[in-house]
Amino acid sequence: MDQTQFAAVGSTSGGPDDKFDDEDYPAYSMGRAAEMLGVTPAFLRSLGLAKLIEPQRSGGGHRRYSRYQLRLAARARELVDQGTPLEAACRIIILEDQLAEALRINAELQRGMTSQG
User: pTM of the prediction?
Assistant: First the structure.
């Protein structure tokens, strides 16, 4: 299936295929997430203890990670690999995330003001 066919599959509104586009859908097990990021499961658990990411749990109690959480974990790994202590790396990422959200909201407000006047 090529990318255009894949996009068409996820285009139905409200169906199970919407999960393909959902950044917050907990699609990855801890083992798979660790493998994708090149980290240990212990590193992912430490991100939970540092309150950077809180994975959802499957019915059996297993941790499940979303793509958004994997991006945060990848950023944490990048900072830790550069010598930043884990707690500081997590705080940096939280602040970066808050700044990005504030900038997004500001841009929306600016667009709203421009369209009104």
Answer: 0.75
